[in-house]
Amino acid sequence: MHILLPGPTPIPEAVQEALIRAMSDHRGTLFGQVDVKVRTELATLLGAPTKDHIAILPASGTGGLEAACENLLSPGDRALVVETGLFGRRFREVAEAHGVDVECVEIPWGQAFNPQEIAERVRQKPYRAILVTHNETSTGVLNPVEALAQAIGTDPGAPLMIVDSISGVPSIPLTLGPGLDVIIAASQKGFMCPPGLAILALSERARQSVVSDTRPGRFYFDLRPYLSGRLPYTPAIGLWHALHAALGLLRAEGAFARLQRHRMLRDMVRHFARAGGLTLLVEDAVASPTVTALGLPSEMNPGDLRRHLENAGLQIAGGLGLWHERAIRIGHVGHVDRADLAAGLTLMAPHLPHSEQALAAMIPFLKEA
GO MF annotations for this entry (predicted)? Predict the structure, then answer.
């Protein structure tokens, strides 16, 4: 089965092998070495000051969103949520569930936010935090998070910026820095592992906010033990071993080469789809390197197309939210190269209005190999 999903994504052989390693005492020396290596590598990858600014939870990416809200926001705190799609809405809903006073900037689907406009709004009133989505999986939009961090600045009174980068890093580099305080990721996308780990990287300012907070009401998602170098309960040992192996693969490829590969895959999909008669729902300038949303002609049904493709040996994702009835999504993230993508798109081509043109549009990308 060919998998072109925005998550879960294909798992490399080395990561699969790591998953079946024998269990060991999670408080013993063997796992302790893995713990230190994984958190140290993640700190380097995400720009965290030390390994004790990293928390790895046995949870989905949504668990990471909830952990961030639970540990960094209190009921009644004012937060600005920038909503650019379904997962921006989820971040808002998580914050609201914790009693946060949420103000929401809703951006039309398929568009990125304007960092200067958001920064101007922040200057008009105080917020405890800004919640933003780096790479909106539902629309395939890459948001200018780094530009927003720069626009907000490093004033001591500036709000914490908490970033959902679950379908962004490590495929799209993003690091903590001035104005950017928390990065939330998950294991099942660019990290090339099965689902089950939520990863949080915190700036020193965010870490101090968490470890000095003595209010009650946290337990499973309490980040304080993690940020003190302790595992409060049994971790997902097999997934830690898998993540350790995946981090080695990521380090070997390098951030620049990884980003270039994902950009090339994005461009290959967009050329294929445009030539094949599908609609690109996002402009080139803000198109995600990891997932592409495509509008179908009115005579095509997304659900029927996905079923036909799965029978042919290809899994793609359906549209979400506002685009559920009119779109599909193609993931090109993680352990995917141009040959993998070409194989999947070749299975898809016969179902498009202009199949021969779609296949021809891929050829220049294959010649680059």
Answer: alanine-glyoxylate transaminase activity; L-serine-pyruvate transaminase activity
